[in-house]
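Limitations

Structures in this collection are predictions, not experimental determinations, and the ligand pose is part of the prediction. Treat each record accordingly. The example that follows, with zinc ion as the small molecule, is included so readers can see exactly what is and is not provided: the inputs are given verbatim, and the output is the predicted complex.
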Amino acid sequence: MPELPEVETTLRAVAPVLIGRTIESVNVLRPNMVNNHPTFAKTLKGKTVLGMKRHGKYMWMELSGGLNLMLHLRMSGRLGLRKLKDTPLSRERIRFEIGNDLVLVFNDPRTLGRLWIIEGNDVYKDPSMKALGPDALTLTEEIFLERLKKKRGTLKSLLLNQSFIAGVGNIYGDEACFIAKIDPRRKVIGLSMIERKRLYKAVIKTLEQGIYNSGTSFSDFADLFGKPGQNQHSLMVYGRGKKNCRVCNMLLESTKIAQRTTVWCPGCQK
Ligand SMILES: [Zn+2]
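Predicted complex:
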């Protein structure tokens, strides 16, 4: 599932192509993936892309006419860039014709991705955005520690909670706990100040490394031109249950936390 680094990778690739271009037409092949259907396509036609933004796993295009086109990739969504004359791919769900000969494609095997339009210059008034915590990549240590102070429960479930900080999912949550050398099953309330600061640095480091490696690709994620990310080769624990720790060689353990498989090293993480 795309997390912050995959969304950021997508945004960095797509923004320079889209900004300044006009959406000539929109073809919605899966109406259930867009809100405001059937006016969705008509509303976007003729609008120019002025900017692109991201917060957590959400990204959006700022459009002329005071509109924002919100995109959430969810489980398996991704954006692709194609030529108008290319044969459409089987998993294309929404097609945006941009400029003269380009098509921005929202490709999604599981069709769980979502696109919707927000009017006006404040996307944070939207219920989905209002509920988000600060973006995990850009938040300061001070804010992180302050928010952590008020929290209870298990560390891993807190990291997955988008209202705590936005952008960390199962992959980067497991990796951050490993880098911080903290057992993901620990109660947040029992973390020392040193561990809390280590956790903050680990979250940022893990996300930055994911972006540096152009995201993690296990099945669906790829960049605009179909090239997979490289971060899966750098993962220390995620997806490696019952394998040996790359640092201390102990067998990695796994369990379910918040319905998600969590992997950690009993040797390195206390
Ligand atoms: Zn280890």
